[in-house]
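It is worth pausing here to work through a concrete case rather than discussing structure prediction in the abstract. The textbook approach is simple: state the sequence, then state the predicted structure, then interpret. We follow exactly that order.
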Amino acid sequence: MKKLETVVEDIYETLSCLCDQEDLNISEEDIEDFGERMKNVIRHWSKPHQESRGLRMSNVGRPLRRLWYDLKKDRPLYNRADPHTFIKFLYGHMLEEVVLLLVKLSGHDVKDEQKEVEVDGVLGHIDCKIDGEVVDIKTASNFAFKKFKDGSLHTSDPFGYMAQLSGYEEAEGTTDGGFIALNKESGELALYQPGPFVKVNVKNKIKSVRVAADLDTPPERCYNTVSEGAKGNQRLPRECGYCPHKTECYADANNGRGLRIFKYAAGLKYFTRVMSTPKVQELVVNE
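Step two, the predicted structure:
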């Protein structure tokens, strides 16, 4: 029986025949199963999906202030997703199915896909178990992929992946699970199995989240602002850029004016203090 620790090497070994111009010999059964999975991805993706406002295993590890807004406030209308974001969601889900296909082709055992689990009243759905261990499949940019490849995810985890995995393992009574990450830019795979010293005590985490959720005002801000240039400008860090509540969170920025948004070639930057106006386009948000 194969072990999770070798899954990436085994996938590469399985695919090495293609490098030698040899047939991978995928069975018709595996091809049909993969085709059905792709159909289900399209069906799910094409329907409106309203995210639940309750506490779930997938959000319990988010920074407390972000989670307070998630639980207390409606998602702002001005954070309506762009059409191209839904394209990103689509190929993300498709690539996750590709990873699972490769795992199966390499001879590893895959079970309990999308199994519902529960810890202290908080529900979640595991991606799967591979060789008896809980595994979360992640697709990542080159920047994010490095955290899985070098094992540094626990030092910078704005989406709460570590708490999510820890919760799944608590529910299933396993200890050696991890993440299989796919680099969307290069196709490279990485397995990250966090050790016990960096995992989250998910029961304590759930307690702290529930305490914070009962507060009338939001907890302290999740991250410090960062300097932009040498003239005193301050902006939000990268992690805050993903948060749909950043405008309300920083309503007091710029002496009460709120966030000022500037469009750089590399993307939008959100300024909390402007001492020297950037020489790029400033965007006006209609709330």
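Step three, interpretation. Residues 226-283 form one domain. The chain is about 35% helix and 20% strand.
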